Amino acid sequence: MLYAYLFDLLNAAFENTTIELSLAAPRDVAYFSKAFPELYVTSQVEGNLGARMHTSFQHAFSNGAARAVLTGSDIPGLDAALVSEAFAALEHQPAVIGPAADGGYYLIGMRTPGANLFRNIAWSTDNVLAQTEAQAQRQGLSLTRLRTLVDIDTGDDYRAWRAN
Fold first, then answer.
1. Cα–Cα distance, 128 to 130 (Å, whole number)
2. I need a surface site. Which of 48, 73, 104, 111 has the fewest CB within 10 A?
């Protein structure tokens, strides 16, 4: 699943864009760096999902990014066209979010380096999207919503997706 998604992104010809693969397991960096030399492969910082995503945005903006989009790797419906749509939304809006059917989200993007939408979120619950949208509202950031997709968190999720 991850490989097909990466190949779609790599073949999409995103202009002036660095595609970073950020791994939860530092031991996997060497393998993925060799398998995908066209990617910038890093390991994630320790901490909860919010801390890891916040650090990824900080890293992107400190390296000169004008816009940054983070996605999950467990989203079978995510493709380069949808990522392009997210980047296009960021030309006019400060933030974009792709809701997941389970109450979370599969994509979040920002063009606002100082924003932190990841504090006080009950991760891995069906309230993640609502809490993130509330956090954005408190910070005065409007979020453009993309279409809702399914993410694959469990074997049951995978079987349900395959059945459709």
1. 6
2. 48
Categorize the per-residue pLDDT at 91 as very low, low, confident or very high, splitting at 50, 70 and 90.
Answer: very high
pTM: predicted TM-score of the whole model, two decimal places: 0.86
Number of domains in the chain: 1
Structural domain of 44: 2-163
- Collapsing DSSP to helix, strand or coil, 35 comes out as helix
pLDDT attached to residue 21: 85
Please give the Cα distance from 69 to 105 (Å, whole number).
12
User: Is 109:96 a contact under the CB 8 Å cutoff?
Assistant: yes
> Could you give the CA distance from residue 131 to residue 139 in angstroms, rounded to a whole number?
12
CATH number of the domain that residue 159 is part of: 3.90.550.10
The length of the chain is 164
Which DSSP symbol is given to 92?
T
Measured distance CA(89)–CA(107) in Å, rounded: 13
- As a whole number of Å, the CA-based R_g of the chain is 15
Residue given tokens 């991850």 in the structure block: 2
Give tens-digit pLDDT for 107-144.
Answer: 999 998 878 899 999 999 999 999 999 999 999 999 99
Q: What is the pLDDT of residues 32-74, one digit of tens each?
A: 899 888 888 988 888 899 999 999 999 899 989 999 999 988 8
**Looking at residue 100, what DSSP letter applies?**
B
